[in-house]
Design a protein that fits this description.
The complex is a heterodimer. Chain A has 29 helices and seven strands. Chain A has a domain at 430-528. Chain A is extended and about 170 Å long. By secondary structure, chain A is mostly helical. In chain A, a hairpin with a 2-residue loop joins strand 3 (124-125) and strand 4. Chain A has helices at residues 3-25, 51-71, 93-108, 130-134, 140-149, 151-160, 164-178, 183-232, 238-243, 245-263, 276-299, 346-358, 366-372, 379-395, 397-425, 428-440, 452-459, 464-477, 486-506, 512-528, 530-555, 563-575, 586-599, 605-622, 630-642, 697-721, 728-742, 750-765, 804-875, and strands at 31-32, 48-49, 124-125, 128-129, 334-335, 338-339, 684-685. Helix content of chain A is 63%, strand content 2%. In chain A, helix 21 packs antiparallel against helix 22 and helix 24 (605-622) packs parallel to helix 26. By secondary structure, chain B is mostly helical. Chain B folds into three domains: 20-144; 149-273; 333-417 and 425-493. Chain B is 56% helix and 0% strand. Chain B is built from 23 helices and one strand. Chain B is elongated, with a radius of gyration of 34 Å. Chain B starts with a helix and ends with a strand. The chains are: A mainly alpha, B mainly alpha.
Chain lengths: 876, 526
């Protein structure tokens, strides 16, 4: 069963292949698709079409599917293919066959076979029944085997038993007779053997040749080696010398060159330009040196130049420069009722002064301050160092005691020898004061703080100037070029510093002076790490805005931000450019200002002060870019409205957070109009945003007037800023009505009157007329040119001038269209095919009928004829 | 026995024992009628000062009387007075029942009083207990009636509960939210609604129209907690199932529920309300009140009154009005004129900004509006935009653009080419109330031109759109309706790889310096 179709297939294939080539070669069958361009190296599948073949294929396919369906159309019974796994694509064909076989066996193993002891079951081997094999009918099998297995043995036997050529031939001829099928095989076998022998011989020869060649090569190598050896010992054998004169010349030339080069003068390396890293390193070293100096001076050690000439070497000294300085340090003890710290000499002081001057910009004037101011600040540091001395003192307890007195003597001697007489005139008190000053001096190196707490500890208890110095020195000591981790450390420092500033601003009273001092350092750090500074500022702003937004959501309004936020906003303006169209830090900052100006209720003079600070900041932010900030105008006009005495009169328009009337709408109304006369403009303190204590009414009024003057000044600035906006008059309309109608100038002190009139003038002088709005003129579309537009094509086969999505869309559209057309065509062909079938059916039916009719008529005619003939006969 | 006596000795020392006591007492009472007098002990504890005792006693009472109700050990029918009963000729069994019924009544009274207790726990347990009584009473009614004629429901009890929950002095919102659980049952809900109405009518009439904020907020919370079913088939959850004629029961009909709901709300809204309450009602009106009324049009008076109030209340009334106009054919004269006059600078700052602009967008989406009206709206919004925060601007600019897109004849507002470069003042009259007379069509949107210089980059970009002809596609403003400043900030705060931080090049030396020194001129470090 299984074999028959296979054979058929094979035959089919052969026939088909034949037919295919025939068809392909037949020019009438082939349709050649003309190509527009010949592209080299491109293979196209569709250059030749076989319309006849494809049509017949399509027809056959239709016959198999459509026609069958058509014929089955009105039939309810159905053919079901129950073959196991016939339509299961997942099943491997082997599995399929196995399972089918198993099922077949099961089926055969029916009830009637229960007692059947292997009688009908036939055992097979390679498809042949074992029973048949056992009969040994076929002797050919064994012969075959010997033939197959003993290919060489047959040959061997022939040669071994001296068969010779004749015998061999005879055997083959015998084989011929014996075997009907194997004649050709034997021949080929013989050839094979011959070939084999030939091959082996050839190989042998080749091996020999190789060996010879290798020998030759080694000999050659040996000779070469000899020549080289001769060269190496500078004794060239004469034979070689004769052989290769050219070869010898070359190395000599080279050698000469080498020697020449060797003797030539070498360029001396000059002093290298110092890279910033090296500079930083140097600076750090300098600072370290200074620090070491300072420490030594603090301990009371002298200048250190040859004074202590004889250096005692300890037995434990590793000679690594580490000095367990017995002479430098001593225990802290009282001597004659005074500290036993050594005196500092005049010289030292001078040296220190010079070294600090070298330090450059950041150390300006630090000298005096260090000496004068800071003594009190460093009490605890002193204590620490005192304890340090104590610890050190343990090392040299025994010697200390004895040497103490003489040491002092020694020192005095040394100093006197250097400093002459005037030094001795300095009394002990003075010396001591200087010592303290030296001790109070700042260390020169600082480890970068790892956490905010570290920074706080570091800066705690120092004056603002010293804090600045500390930060500057930390920054220098940890310059990113000095060590790998320094960059990260300093980046962290930026954040900590900002946090610290915030904390300074939240203290009461706020330490704004310190912040002011720290600004340059922050600026410098920010210049180094814009990313870190930007990110930390962003997170500060984000957090503040988030909490404010939450408050707004809960209560509908929020409290004005605390002073630290104001400081942060100002610092933002100092560190980052405010005029950028979009800036990752300043844009959110400006948004935050606008949020506070719209959502924070003004309930006290403090709030108003905060608001005015924010307004100032806003004006600063937009002063360069002249961008429009509606909230600013709203807030300023609201503030002015606070100063209006009778709110009842109509015509005012205020925008939230301000209200037309209410508890807090009289914040800026003067309690006594007399106080105008005694008022003088003063700068408002920033701390007033947090707490404000104004005792008398007069003070309050003065404060109010201060606020009002700030507000008016800001309005004036805004007028100048927004002069060119088209809606200038409408923007300033509320302020104008407020100033002209409700807050007339005669109620104000004279400096404010001036401002008042200036503002009004500025507002009224602006032009109120504008041209109508029109669209921007479009560029005229240029005429189409006939000269070809030459575009450089970088990626062939891709449509350009559209985004990826568009291309994808286009592709899908195209595909859809193609598919649609194809489907339509198929459907048409189907219906045509069906129509043809129907027609042929009808024609067949008609033909059949005609045939039958003809038959009938024919038979009738014959009948009639017969009858007539009969009649005629009868008549005759 | 012994522990019961001990109570007098050490009642406060060990609360735990007392709890055990209660269980014992209750068991004893239930076991034999001999110990009936122990019920006084329990009632005494019920009035104790200590909250723990009270709560334990409430539990005990609950258990005791529920069992008695189940056993029908309480007197059924018209209750004779206690003294009469003792004198009168009743069988001992009946006497016992009458006695117990009186105790039950006492207990209910005390529990109702406890609804005014200071601590929430006591209130809550009292409420639960009362509702359990109600459930039991519903199953085993205490009235002696022909139940084939009447529907059994513990009306008096529930009415008393409602009356006590709606306190005039205490804010009972917590208790009310607990009560909501019982309102899930359809019959309770139905009766509660009618009781609320009665209660409101009596209380408000007594106060003669004055505002009672606490009481009204209690009523409002309770009413808000009523979840109306939307279909008749949902009416399946009953506390008392009527054996006969269940279908005829009013509490089982959705229509009657709706009627009761409607009458309750109308009865409540009839009286003067505090302003905050007004807003709260208007916020929920359109989606939790109007759909459940049988005749939503009855709300017209309330809504129009609210619309005329002005300010935020008008904005909120808009939503309810919209539902009425849209679904119930309400014709509202001068609707657009009023809407136009609602546009005030504060519109961009109020809490309900998003809702207002959503509705305004709906109202103005009609293409049959006259051009002058649309132009007036566009111009007014543009003028107001001069005082708006960036979040509002990001919404109102697309809003204006959409108006112009919908009504192409409004394009003159942003594009009116004329032969000569004439200069003209803005003819638009901001103060004019009537949109027909404000000359908006003769004006141009110079305000948007101004906003091109706005400090926020997104706003400036949005304003730039008027420089070129606009696309046909309308902008979807629903996304930007509720944008907050913080979200706007986050756009810039979000870390992106390509973001660099440009720096100020002017060296900063002092805090108050830099950029014109505005801060330094007016403030000093101190």
């Amino acid at each position: 069963m299984g074999k028959a179709p296979k054979k058929k297939n094979l035959a089919d294939k052969v026939r088909k292949a034949k037919a295919a080539t025939e068809i392909k070669n037949n020019p009438f069958e082939v349709k050649i698709n003309r190509k527009k361009f010949d592209v080299l190296g491109r293979k196209s599948k569709h250059d030749v079409g076989l319309p006849g073949v494809s049509r017949s294929k399509a027809i056959i396919k239709r016959k198999e599917t459509l026609l069958k369906e058509y014929k089955q159309k009105n039939k309810s019974n159905k053919f079901i293919d129950r073959r196991l796994g016939e339509y299961d694509a997942k099943m491997a064909p082997e599995d399929k066959i196995l399972q089918r076989f198993a099922i077949e066996r099961q089926r055969a193993h029916g009830k009637r076979d229960v007692y059947n002891l292997n009688e009908e079951e036939e055992l097979t081997h390679y498809g042949q029944s074992l029973a048949e094999i056992e009969k040994f009918n076929d002797t050919v099998g064994s012969d075959d085997e010997s033939e197959e297995k003993g290919l060489l043995s047959a040959e061997l036997t022939a040669s071994h038993f001296g068969g010779g050529g004749g015998l061999l031939r005879k055997k083959t001829s015998g084989g011929y007779q014996e075997d009907e099928q194997g004649g050709q095989k034997i021949k080929s076998r013989q050839e094979l053997i011959e070939e084999l022998i030939q091959k082996s011989k050839q190989e042998k020869r080749e091996r020999q040749v190789q060996k010879e060649e290798a020998q030759e090569l080694t000999e050659k190598l040996d000779q070469d080696w000899k020549s080289i050896q001769a060269l190496m010992v500078k004794k060239t054998p004469k034979a070689e010398n004769v052989d290769k004169p050219e070869e010898k010349a070359k190395p000599e030339e080279y050698d000469m060159m080498v020697r020449e080069l060797g003797f030539e003068m070498k360029a001396q390396p000059s002093e290298k330009m110092k890279s910033p890293e090296e500079l930083a390193k140097e600076e750090k070293e300098k600072l370290q040196k200074l620090e070491a100096d300072r420490l030594r001076r603090m301990m009371g050690d002298e200048g250190g130049d040859g004074v202590q000439s004889q250096v005692h070497m300890s037995a434990d000294d590793l000679n690594d420069g580490f000095v367990l300085d017995k002479h430098d340090k001593k225990t802290l003890a009282y001597q004659d009722g005074k500290w036993n710290i050594e005196e500092e000499t005049e010289d030292d002081k001078e040296e220190e002064g010079e070294s600090e001057k070298e330090e450059g910009s950041e150390a300006e004037g630090e000298n005096e301050e260090d000496d004068d101011d800071d003594d009190e600040d460093d009490v605890e540091e002193e204590g620490e160092e005192g304890s340090g001395e104590d610890e050190d003192g343990h090392s040299d307890l025994e010697s200390e005691q004895e040497s103490e007195n003489e040491e002092n003597d020694e020192e005095e001697e040394a100093s006197s020898s250097r400093q002459q007489q005037q030094q001795q005139t300095l009394n002990r008190e003075e010396l001591k004061a200087r010592q303290e000053a030296a001790k109070a001096e700042l260390p020169y190196t600082f480890a970068a703080p790892e956490s905010y707490e570290d920074l706080k500890d570091l800066l705690h208890g120092h004056t603002p100037d010293n804090q600045r110095l500390i930060v500057a020195r930390t920054q220098k000591c940890n310059h990113p070029s000095l060590a790998a981790g320094n960059k990260l450390k300093l980046q962290k420092l930026v954040g900590f510093l900002m946090e610290y500033m915030g904390e300074l601003a939240t203290r009461s009273p706020p330490e704004l002076g310190t912040i002011d001092k720290l600004i340059p350092e922050l600026y410098a750090l920010c210049q180094m790490f814009p990313e870190a500074a930007g990110k930390s500022m962003q997170s500060i702003l984000g957090d503040a805005a988030h909490s404010m937004e939450e408050a707004v959501e809960v209560k509908g309004h929020a409290a004005f931000p605390t002073l630290d936020m104001l400081v942060y906003l100002k610092v933002t303006a100092l560190l980052f450019p405010t005029s950028d169209f979009r800036h990752p830090v300043t844009t959110p900052a400006l948004l935050f200002i606008s949020l506070t100006l719209t959502k924070c209720l003004v309930r006290s003079l403090q709030d108003l002060t905060s608001g005015l600070v924010l307004c100032c900041l806003a004006v600063e932010y937009v002063s360069l870019s002249k961008r429009f900030l509606p909230e600013l105008i709203n807030f300023l006009s609201g503030t002015l409205h606070l100063a209006v005495q009778d709110k009842a009169s109509a015509g005012c328009m205020v925008v939230p957070p301000f209200r037309l009337s209410g508890k807090y709408s009289d914040l800026l109304v003067l309690s006594n109009s007399e106080s105008c006369s005694s008022w003088r403009k003063e700068n408002l303190p920033l701390s007033a945003t947090q707490q404000l204590e104004l005792k008398s009414d007069l003070n309050k009024d003065h404060y109010r007037l201060n606020c009002l003057s700030t507000c008016l000044d800001l309005v004036k600035r805004c007028c100048l800023l927004y002069k060119d906006l088209t809606s200038f008059t409408h923007i300033f309309q509320p302020i104008r009505t407020l100033l002209s109608k409700h807050l007339s100038s005669h109620m104000l002190p004279s400096p404010l009157q001036e401002l008042h009139s200036e503002i009004l003038e500025a507002i009224s002088s602006a032009s109120v007329t504008h041209t109508r709005l029109v669209f921007e003129k479009k560029k005229p579309i240029p005429l189409k040119l006939f000269t070809p537009k030459i575009v450089e094509v970088l990626d062939y086969g891709k449509k350009r001038g559209s985004t990826r999505e568009e291309r994808e869309k286009e592709r899908l559209k195209h595909k859809y269209k193609k598919e649609f057309k194809g489907a339509l065509r198929e459907i048409r062909k189907d219906s045509r095919f069906l129509a043809r079938e129907k027609l042929s059916e009808v024609m067949n039916r008609d033909a059949e009928r005609k045939r039958k009719v003809k038959e009938l008529l024919g038979s009738l005619a014959t009948q009639e004829g017969e009858w007539k003939a009969l009649k005629r006969k009868k008549r005759k | 026995m012994a522990p019961a006596k001990k109570r007098n000795v050490s009642s406060k020392a060990n609360a735990k024992k007392i709890k055990i006591d209660f269980e014992g007492i209750v068991e004893r009472i239930l076991k034999s009628r001999k110990h009936a007098n122990d019920v006084f002990d329990v009632l005494e504890f019920l009035q104790s000062e200590k909250e723990k005792d009270v709560i334990c006693a409430v539990d005990a009472c609950c258990k005791l009387f529920c069992t008695l109700l189940k056993r029908k050990d309480l007197f059924i029918g018209k209750l004779p007075g206690e003294d009469e009963a003792i004198k009168g000729e009743h069988s001992p069994d009946e006497k016992y029942k009458i006695f117990m019924r009186h105790r039950y009544n006492n207990c209910v009274e005390i529990l109702l009083e406890h609804l005014h207790h200071e601590t929430h726990e006591v209130k809550e347990s009292a409420l639960c207990c009362l509702m359990k009584f109600a459930a039991e009473q519903g199953l085993h009614p205490l009235e002696d009636l022909d139940w084939s004629e009447y529907f059994s429901f513990p009306r008096e009890l529930i009415q008393a509960v409602v009356h006590n929950i709606l306190s005039q002095s205490l804010d009972n919102s917590l208790l009310i939210s607990r009560f909501q659980e019982f309102l899930e049952m359809d019959d309770i809900r139905y009766y509660v609604m009618s009781f609320i109405r009665d209660n409101v009518a009596t209380v408000m009439n007594k106060s003669k129209g004055a505002v009672l904020p606490v009481y009204q907020s209690n009523v409002f919370t309770l009413m808000l907690n009523i979840n109306m079913p939307s279909q008749e088939t949902e009416l399946t959850n009953f506390m008392v199932k009527q054996e006969t004629k269940h279908e005829d029961w009013k509490a089982a009909k959705l229509h009657d529920h709706k009627r009761a709901f409607e009458r309750m709300w109308l009865g409540f809204l009839k009286y003067k309300l505090p302003n905050s309450m007004y807003k709260k009602i208007l916020v929920v009106l359109h989606d939790s009140i109007l759909p459940h009324m049988s005749k939503p049009t009855l709300m017209i008076d309330f809504l129009t009154a609210a619309y005329d109030v002005g300010g935020a209340i008008s904005l909120l009334a808009l939503n309810g009005l919209f539902v009425l106009i849209h679904q119930h054919n309400l014709d509202y004269p001068d609707f657009y004129k009023k809407l136009y006059n609602l546009l005030e600078p504060s519109v961009f700052h109020v809490k309900y900004k998003a809702r207002f602009f959503h509705l305004a967008n709906l109202f103005l989406s009609s293409s049959h509006l006259p051009v002058y009206l649309v132009a007036a709206f566009a111009k007014r919004l543009a003028r107001l935009a001069l005082t708006a925060p960036p979040t509002a601007l990001l919404m109102v600019l697309p809003f204006i653009y959409n108006l112009i897109r919908r009504h192409p004849s409004c394009r003159v507002l942003i594009h009116k080419p004329s032969s000569e470069d004439e200069l003209l003042e803005d003819p638009y009259v901001m103060e004019e109330v009537d949109p027909a007379l404000c000359h908006a069509l003769e004006s141009s949107l110079w305000e948007i031109k101004t906003l091109q210089k706005h400090y926020h980059p997104d706003v400036a970009k949005a304003a730039m759109l008027i420089n070129t002809p606009m696309t046909e596609q309308e902008d979807d403003i629903s996304e930007v309706l509720e944008i907050t400043s913080y979200e706007l900030m986050e756009r810039d705060l979000k870390p992106t790889e390509s973001k660099s931080f440009p720096l100020e090049f002017e060296t900063a030396a002092h805090l108050l310096e830099g950029r014109g020194e505005v801060l330094g001129r007016h403030f000093c470090l101190a």
